[in-house]
Design goal:
402 residues; Heat Shock Protein 90; 3 domains; 5-stranded mixed beta sheet; 12 strands; elongated; binds adenosine-5'-triphosphate; binds magnesium ion
Length: 402
Amino acid sequence: MAASRGRVLVVDDNELNLRVLSDMLERSGYGIMPAIRPEIALQALEEAIPDVVLLDVMMPEMDGYELCRRIHDYPGMQRVPVLFVSAAADSESVLRGFEAGAVDFITKPFQFQEVLARVRTHMELHQTRQRLAHSEKMAAIGQLAAGTAHEINNPLAYVMSNLSMLNAYGMQMRDAVTKAFDLLAEYGRKADPDGWEDRVRTIRKEHDLEYIGDDFRPLVDNMRDGLKRVAEIVRGLRDFAHPSNTKKTEVDLSDEAERALELAHSELKYVSEVKKELAPLTKVMAVPSQIDQVLVSILVNAAQALEDRQDGEIVVRSGEDDDGVFVEVRDNGPGMDRSTVDRVFDPFFTTKDVGKGTGMGLAIAHGIVDDHFGRLDVTSEPETGTVFRVFLPKATKNFPAE
Ligand SMILES: Nc1ncnc2c1ncn2[C@@H]1O[C@H](COP(=O)(O)OP(=O)(O)OP(=O)(O)O)[C@@H](O)[C@H]1O
Ligand SMILES: [Mg+2]
């Protein structure tokens, strides 16, 4: 699984170079995807998308220029920065590199500090660009969501309230009809002792009155359930577009994790083990109710992923570094393949049965964490499990004035 700073694909046919570069970057907190041959690099892309690629130019089977083109052709890789590492630093080679799609050139023999600085710069640029693209997409969807939610909300409100009335009227009518028939039967019997009762029974039967009377209430209840579900989706859309409470205060993220665990209790009680590794943290500025919502969504997802498992385990861990504080939720559930991981934050993406998930949980969570200038990261491996990590920055200088 990738370290949270980002993943670097390192391609070099020289084993020593590969090891030195990989070790150095790993020590600095990056997740490494090492590849000693071009086809191993291409295969590695099946498993995970890196944030930066370090590419040796001279390789026997396929030169770096060609590999660079192929890497960029790979789905999801178009914008991932490729840095060439080469002993050939003449201007022609450098130009060829840029033409092939490289963003930077590191000459061999390299200086560790220089490689690190360049990787860090391109990593940050790439991640910022991705976040911006994601925010733009979310803003557009948010606008659409807000409009749609508003439009659906009014008819929904009156259909809901009319349905209650309809139910009451239906029950009243059923009782009135029953009474009227009873009365008819009673009086009719006097007038026509032999045929009357049969005639009343026939009318009731022809019009299915018993069945309608019995079925009316379940039918309305069913409709009400359906409408509740629509209301839930509309609420999700509205939360996504305009989170309700937006007042930021100083919070300890570990306290919020405790609260989220309590809030999600009813879902978590079926998980065989929930481990807490929470320590007091430096306080950061955040909207507590929103952060709770993020953590509850993640916890509920983890619990749902562990459904039917005897040995299901969730570990909730908090920590901090110089830049910020984090809470991590780890489960040993079925995990996700790459194409699923790529879509978890998309609005309405769900793999759950109809009626079980709206697919808005993580989209809303991501929007909230963005609004906090934080990061919501996910790493997952099929059959091993999933980790969601909420990271909030300590520096508050970027927060807009409340
Ligand atoms: N811990 C996890 N393990 C495995 N898959 C997960 C996990 N968390 C999320 N997912 C996947 O991500 C999808 C999207 O999650 P999200 O919370 O956004 O929606 P949902 O849970 O399906 O519906 P809801 O709107 O009710 O939350 C899920 O349907 C599931 O496929
Ligand atoms: Mg969910």
